[in-house]
Specification:
The complex is a heterodimer of chains A (about 450) and B (about 325). Chain A is mainly α and about 450 residues long. Chain A has helices at about 5-10, 10-20, 25-45, 45-80, 80-85, 90-105, 105-120, 125-155, 160-180, 205-230, 240-255, 260-285, 290-305, 305-315, 315-340, 345-370, 375-395, 400, 425-440; strands at about 195-200, 200-205. Chain B is about 35% helix and about 30% strand. The chains are: A mainly alpha (about 450), B alpha/beta (about 325). Chains A and B meet through helix 1, helix 2, helix 5, helix 13 and helix 14 of A and strand 2, helix 2, helix 3 and helix 4 of B.
Chain lengths: ~450, ~325
């Protein structure tokens, strides 16, 4: 019996290589590429062949790679082998590497032949082109697998459409990544000028800046996949990964704060931090299933004063929400201490009330509907923040409008908002939704 | 710590569960279950559909996170260190979960490697597991080409390839023909004979009786047991003695012995309740022989698994 050495190093990687790199497939890929790309070269010219190769390379790594990354996991769930993987003693990180590198190995094998073809056809700046495709491929495949894992949390028993959604998410992200890098072509290579990006006051080469940040994004995606698999494996890690990502995203965005006076810059930092953390709060909220068990565990741990257990049970959006609150408070305080015109303090109070209300709404909708909650939430928030305020704006019922939007009708930033009694309304709404949520969480008696 | 509450002391059993609570959404599937299983026991987990048997097994395997409670297997906290605990257990669920496009050999190699076995152990472990389920001559065949019964065997081999001291089986005989069921019973008896602790959930009580030593009965998320099969609810075992001579001297003698009650004269002998296990039976038998009582037959009887289960259901 032949036992490959890789099997004991990373069993999941070896298993995927067994499945993906069979002898037939190893022969089929170069033959198909030779026919396709050789045909383009023979029929047209080298430039056309380069374009065709670039297209095939991107299609392999982004489109097919996303499919393989998402489908590999989907197949595990469908064939019920995922539970056996959860029962193994392998680490989540070894599984992450095995699934990402092994599950997509066939398209990387094809990419190798595309790279050789690009060199053979005399494509300009092949290393830059390959670097961009490599990073975009990693982003696409990481996004696809992470999306598949996130969707699996919401409906572990169903795979309907999940692989396609994950593949599309991966493809769109990968394509965006690829397009954000300016890859030279035969026409542009001679005239290309060096574009720069200003970050933390320093001018960076645009392509280098984008590539480095895409590599970091791919690493974050890998971390996200690993943390998701750890959760599937029964580890209670808490929201450390998302907290670090929030910190990273805030620090990244702070680098783009424009050069201004010290006071304005500090206020700008707080505003940027609040906005970034706010977006991540809603993002984290939407990708976290509402788990009554998790909430009960959290409440019980908090009541018993078990800090570490409470942290492990904390939903991942909570640290982002805390960062949002800190950002808002810091922004208002900075303006109070430095600016001539004082901001209306009730405005952020109202905004935080809406944040609490929205969190409660997301949990309530998820507990009541259970399926297709994302669509329900998009419709609901569209009503709450778009259609209903517009209707009441038209009817000049300002108090009713403040039920749905904290900003007065004729307010502009820097001016007193005029929010008064309206600041209490979102908190009343939040209290009402929280009360409904509390009722929903009460245990029902077991059937006799 | 991945649990809400745990009792301060967990006894030194092979499997210990304390205060286990599991809820689906807000419906309670397991309601404060506690039990211990000693090493080497073959425990039948019985109960009606929806009683919570599968959920309990999945919790024991660390596949589900309970709301509260503690689970310890071979001294390892399953909820705290699930990966380490998985090396100590095998779990066969009510589906195959094998890789159809891989050969039998590669399925088993992967399963053994994923449980952390070293390269020098893998070949032996795979061969042994395949032989134990009668698949040694089909190592190069793809799993997808096997019959249902053979795929079931492969799934069992995958569960035991790393020689776990605890094996959890959820409806292992579902969908098997009578011959395959008989082979499965034989395999479970062999594994138990090798010292493996086994928990089996099944609806087929007669089959469970062939190899089970104890019973855990589950109903509406609550549990009774484990009780030794043949033992009454009070923990006493009925014993029948066939006598060659008169029954009165034997009856008088037994009445003087500790742990014996409810002595009844029956045709050809008598029967009585006895507290304790095989050691107590041995002591009574020896005492009777030493007292000169002529014994033709000495047989523990008591309720079978079905009677025990129905009695639990009625109570």
């Amino acid at each position: 019996m032949r036992v490959p050495a890789l099997l004991t190093v990373n069993p999941e990687l070896q298993r995927n290589l067994w499945l993906e790199l069979s002898a037939t497939r190893l022969v089929a890929m170069p033959v198909a590429l030779a026919v396709l790309l050789g045909g383009a070269y023979a029929i047209a010219d080298a430039e056309t062949a380069v374009s065709a190769t670039r297209f095939v390379l991107a299609a392999l790594l982004l489109f097919w790679g996303s499919r393989l990354a998402a489908d590999g996991f989907g197949e595990e769930v469908t064939t019920r082998t995922w539970d056996n993987q959860r029962l193994s003693a392998a680490s989540a990180w070894s599984m992450t590497l095995g699934k990402l590198a092994g599950g997509t190995s066939y398209v990387w094998y094809g990419a190798l032949f595309c790279a050789l073809a690009l060199a053979a056809f005399g494509a300009p700046d092949v290393p830059a082109l390959l670097a961009a495709n490599l990073v975009a491929g990693l982003v696409a495949q990481g996004t696809a697998l992470l999306t598949a894992l996130v969707l699996h949390q919401f409906s572990p028993g169903s795979r309907r459409g999940q692989t396609t959604i994950a593949q599309l998410a991966g493809f769109v992200c990968g394509l965006s990544a690829l397009q954000s890098v300016a890859i030279p072509t035969a026409r542009t290579v001679a005239t290309a000028s060096v574009a720069t990006t200003t970050w933390y006051g320093v001018n960076w080469d645009n392509n280098g800046f984008v590539l480095v940040n895409l590599v970091l994004l791919a690493l974050w995606l890998g971390l996200g996949v690993g943390r998701s698999i750890r959760r599937e494996f029964g580890h209670a890690d808490g929201p450390l990964g998302w907290t670090l990502f929030t910190l990273y995203a805030v620090l990244f965005m702070l680098g783009f704060t424009p050069e201004q006076s010290v006071e304005s810059r500090i206020a700008g930092w707080f505003a940027t931090a609040a906005l970034t953390a706010g977006v991540l709060t809603y993002g984290g909220l939407l990708v976290t299933p509402a788990s009554p068990i998790g909430l009960k565990r959290l409440v019980a741990a908090a009541q018993a004063g078990r800090g570490l257990d409470a942290w492990r049970s904390l939903p991942m959006w909570v640290p982002s929400a805390a960062a949002t609150v800190i950002g808002v408070v810091g922004f208002v305080a900075t303006l109070f201490l430095t600016a001539a015109s004082k901001p209306e303090p009730l405005l952020p109070v109202a905004a935080l009330g809406f944040l609490v209300r929205d969190i409660a709404i997301v949990y309530l909708v998820r507990l009541v509907w259970k399926r297709r909650t994302l669509i329900a939430l998009v419709i609901l928030f569209g009503l709450l923040y778009g259609i209903l305020p517009a209707l009441f704006r038209a009817s000049e019922l300002s108090l009713v409008r403040e039920l749905f939007l904290p900003i007065p009708q004729h307010w502009s930033p820097g001016q007193p908002s005029g929010v008064g009694f309206g600041a209490i309304l979102p908190w009343l709404e939040a209290a009402a939704v929280l009360a409904a949520l509390w009722r929903r969480l009460q245990p029902r008696p077991s059937p006799p | 710590m991945g649990v809400l509450q745990r009792e301060a002391t967990i006894p030194d059993s092979f499997v210990s569960v304390r205060g286990l609570v599991y809820e689906y959404d807000t419906r309670r599937a397991i309601d404060g279950v506690s039990f211990d299983i000693a090493s080497g026991m073959v425990t039948a987990l019985v109960g009606p559909n929806g009683a919570g048997k599968t959920t309990l097994l999945r919790c024991l395997a660390g596949l589900e996170q309970p709301v509260a409670g503690a689970i310890v297997v071979a001294g390892l906290d399953v909820l705290e260190t699930p990966r380490a605990a998985h090396r100590k257990l095998g779990f066969l669920q009510d589906f195959f979960g094998v890789y159809d496009t891989l050969s039998v050999e590669r399925n088993l190699l992967y399963a053994a490697a994923a449980q952390g076995m070293g390269r020098d152990e893998l070949a032996d472990a795979v061969t042994r597991a395949a032989e134990s389920v009668g698949l040694a001559d089909r190592m190069v065949q793809r799993a997808g080409e096997l019959s249902r019964g053979l795929r079931q065997r492969l799934a069992i081999a995958r569960s035991i390839v790393h020689r776990p001291p605890l094996l959890l089986l959820d409806e292992p005989a579902a969908g098997l023909d009578p011959e395959a069921r008989s082979e499965l019973s034989g395999l479970i008896r062999r594994l138990a004979g090798d010292g493996m602790t086994i928990v089996v959930s099944s609806h087929i009580l007669a089959e469970l009786e062939e190899y089970s030593t104890h019973m855990l009965a589950m109903r509406n998320g609550r549990l009774t047991g484990p009780r030794a099969i043949g033992e009454s609810a009070a923990g006493r075992r009925r014993v029948r003695v066939g006598l060659l001579g008169a029954d009165e001297p034997a009856k008088v003698f037994l009445a003087t012995q500790a742990g014996i009650g409810d002595i009844r004269v029956e045709p050809g002998g008598l029967s009585f309740d006895l507290a304790g296990g095989p050691a107590a039976q041995h002591a009574v038998l020896r005492a009777m022989i030493e007292a000169g009582i002529e014994i033709a037959e000495f047989a523990p009887t008591g309720p079978d698994l079905q009677q025990m289960y129905l009695a639990e259901a009625a109570s």
